[in-house]
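Budget justification aside, the reviewers requested a transparent look at the raw inputs and outputs of the sequence design task funded under Objective 1. We therefore reproduce one unedited record. The lines immediately below are the structure tokens for a 708-residue chain.
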């Protein structure tokens, strides 16, 4: 009996021990369940080794070599990984399969190789499933040096730009500001769009709809021609004149046309397309979308199993693996056999796309949204649903619609109405959350050319031309992608940085530059027009791709940029006039602590009041935006932030005695009906408009109108 125990211990001791290092604990937890005994899975928590934050740490005189250090607070974790590696027979570096992940693996390899005799290898995978993980472990490879160099080049370039531009802002504008190669270009786009919005002059125009009746059926058509010309209805009088002329005229069906349209399914999601759809359909910010996608990728507990539900969520490719195509076609053959194409559908990958990863898709198509809804949060389910629908529908037959269009004459006026119906559902069979207005059908009664109808009622409606729309999360991501600015992994961080630094605010889901942001943008664009522009930024991305493909030496790329850039930095530092202190505005408010006047200052988080006696007096407070509307309260409304997520709201200075809050920012105007303050709102139908914050008051009008 004792001999058996000894043999068992010996066998256990001889068993090969493998250390697998991933980036996050959630991913480690999922993978460890798949691999079982003999494998230890640990998380590096991202970068353990990086450039220091306190100094440049780039040797510009010797090939721009970076000086790496252990990230502050990560030394203990690194030592633990070194101890684990020493006890292991093999080490597998399983960081993400992109440039950042390759750099993490490279740093880990350098930190571990002198601490262990174990063989250190690199493994990559696109999805966290038992099959993908097993295949990766069985086929280890080497670290791709060219990919590491591409990350190094980007990191060095961004450090050189940021650490040279930021001191200019400190010297000329305000301490504590920052600039960056990519974020500053995105800021420029937002500022330029804001200028277009401000310069736009809306013009009044009118439309005219009319109800027509056949038997018991009523339908509405729109005026499209008057006296053979496109109607120019610039005011109410012009519309009323037409109504007066035609309201007693005979109404007759002049033309009926039918057309068929084939609607093709869309490709699986890339990162940018997922962020755009999540913003438009679900109202998610780009940051929120990526956080939830990360959770779905790293693993969710489905019953007794932990499952990575989607593939890697940072990709600009729409390529799908053969295994995934076989799986989805098998699922469709069982569930929608009539909508299964004869051959798999392949989508073209963009020229600039890095094809390291597949498009974003569910790892197991049989995990339908309905089957996993009990295991996901509401937001996880909604994002997973659009990913699942987009992927499955991409491998289904086209849909077909038939549109019937009828033209009805009334005197010299011609009205038109259209209605569509789906004749072949195709991929629409699985589309629910992704369904659009275009897919919703209307109905028309059976009409014949020459048939006489009755007009019932006319609907004249005033409109104003809408200027260019401010950027939203969806539209700025789309623009960044189209212009080649940044990569899938950077879209969300770019927006977050601009918001965190108060260069941009989010108002009614629109990105609006602050005064601080506009000042910074103006200085940077005027001083560095060749750097703070989309063409340079896109060119950098192209060159980084060449470095990764081993077609360009990274040091040479940096050298070609840096010498003229450094010279220009010196010139700007000497020539640009400082505006420090000019942003401060005197006020009539008195500091309650020392009796000196308060000054309106522009800080990192917007305007605030500060004592003019600084540094002797440190008193600061929020700027009142409006009077509190609650009866008997003499408080003022100020901007506040929630404790957890730091989301801005507006509350009373008498809190907690007064609990009034508003999620809309007050404007410096009060309602002529009830006296509560007004806020500016926005929707696609009406554009920007002013509205009373009082829930019992219906006052609102165009933001372009002046109060009487």
């Amino acid at each position: 009996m004792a001999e058996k125990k000894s043999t068992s211990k010996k066998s256990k001791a001889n068993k090969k021990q493998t250390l697998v290092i991933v980036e996050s604990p959630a991913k480690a937890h999922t993978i460890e369940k798949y691999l079982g005994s003999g494998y230890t899975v640990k998380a590096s928590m991202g970068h353990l080794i990086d450039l220091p934050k306190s100094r440049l740490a780039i040797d510009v005189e010797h090939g721009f070599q970076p000086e790496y250090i252990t990230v502050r607070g990560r030394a203990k974790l690194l030592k633990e990984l070194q101890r684990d590696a020493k006890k292991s027979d093999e080490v597998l570096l399983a960081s993400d399969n992109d440039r950042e992940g390759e750099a993490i693996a490279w740093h880990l390899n350098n930190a571990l190789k002198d601490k262990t005799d174990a063989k250190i290898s690199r493994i990559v995978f696109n999805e966290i499933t038992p099959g993908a993980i097993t295949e990766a472990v069985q086929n280890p490879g080497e670290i791709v040096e060219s990919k590491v160099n591409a990350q190094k080049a980007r990191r060095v370039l961004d450090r050189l730009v940021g650490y040279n531009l930021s001191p200019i802002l400190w010297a000329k504008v305000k301490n504590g500001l920052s600039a960056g190669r990519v974020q500053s270009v995105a800021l420029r786009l937002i500022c330029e769009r804001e200028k277009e919005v401000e310069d736009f002059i809306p013009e009044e125009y009118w439309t005219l709809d009319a109800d027509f009746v056949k038997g018991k059926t009523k339908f509405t058509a729109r005026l499209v021609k008057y006296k053979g010309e496109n109607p120019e209805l610039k005011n109410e009088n012009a519309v009323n004149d037409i109504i007066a002329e035609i309201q007693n005229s005979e109404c007759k069906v002049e033309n009926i046309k039918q057309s068929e349209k084939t609607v093709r399914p869309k490709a699986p999601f890339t990162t940018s397309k997922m962020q755009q759809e999540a913003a438009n359909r679900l109202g998610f910010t780009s940051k929120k979308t990526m956080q939830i996608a990360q959770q779905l990728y790293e693993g969710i507990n489905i019953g007794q199993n932990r499952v990575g539900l989607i593939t890697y969520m940072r990709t600009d490719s729409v390529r799908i693996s053969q295994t995934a195509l076989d799986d989805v076609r098998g699922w469709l053959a069982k569930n929608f056999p009539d909508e299964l194409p004869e051959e798999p559908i392949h989508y073209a990958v963009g020229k600039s796309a890095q094809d390291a990863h597949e498009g974003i898709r569910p790892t197991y198509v049989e995990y339908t949204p309905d089957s996993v809804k009990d295991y996901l949060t509401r937001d996880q389910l909604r994002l997973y649903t659009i990913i699942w629908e987009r992927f499955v529908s991409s491998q289904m037959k086209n849909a077909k619609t038939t549109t019937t269009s009828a033209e009805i004459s009334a005197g010299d006026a011609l009205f038109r109405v259209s209605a569509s119906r789906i004749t072949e559902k195709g991929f629409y069979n699985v589309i629910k959350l992704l369904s659009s207005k275009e897919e919703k059908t209307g109905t028309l009664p059976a009409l014949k050319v020459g048939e006489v109808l009755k007009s019932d009622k006319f609907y004249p409606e005033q409109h104003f031309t809408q200027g260019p729309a401010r950027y939203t999360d969806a539209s700025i991501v789309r623009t960044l992608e189209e212009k080649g600015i940044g990569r899938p992994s950077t879209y969300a961080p770019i927006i977050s940085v601009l918001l965190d630094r108060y260069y941009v605010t989010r108002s009614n889901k629109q990105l609006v530059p602050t005064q601080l942001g506009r000042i910074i943008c103006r200085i940077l664009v005027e001083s560095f027009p060749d750097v703070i522009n989309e063409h340079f930024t896109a060119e950098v991305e192209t060159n980084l791709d060449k470095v990764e493909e081993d077609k360009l030496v990274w040091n040479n790329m940096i050298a070609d940029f840096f010498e003229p850039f450094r010279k220009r930095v010196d010139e700007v530092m000497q020539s640009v006039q400082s505006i420090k202190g000019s942003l401060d505005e005197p006020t009539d408010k008195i500091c309650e602590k020392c009796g000196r006047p308060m000054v309106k200052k522009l800080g990192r988080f917007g305007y605030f009041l500060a004592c003019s006696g600084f540094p002797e007096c440190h008193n600061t407070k929020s700027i009142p935006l409006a009077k509190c509307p609650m009866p008997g309260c003499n408080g003022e409304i100020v901007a506040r932030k929630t404790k957890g997520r730091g989301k801005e709201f507006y509350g009373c200075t008498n809190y907690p005695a007064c609990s009034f809050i508003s999620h809309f920012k007050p404007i410096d105007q009060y309602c002529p009906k009830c006296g509560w303050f007004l806020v500016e709102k926005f929707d696609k139908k009406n554009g920007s408009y002013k509205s009373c914050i009082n829930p019992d008051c219906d006052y609102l009008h165009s933001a372009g109108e002046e109060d009487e």
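Confidence is low (pLDDT under 50) at residues 1-12, 702-708. The two ends are 100 Å apart (CA to CA). Computational costs for records of this kind are itemized in the attached budget.
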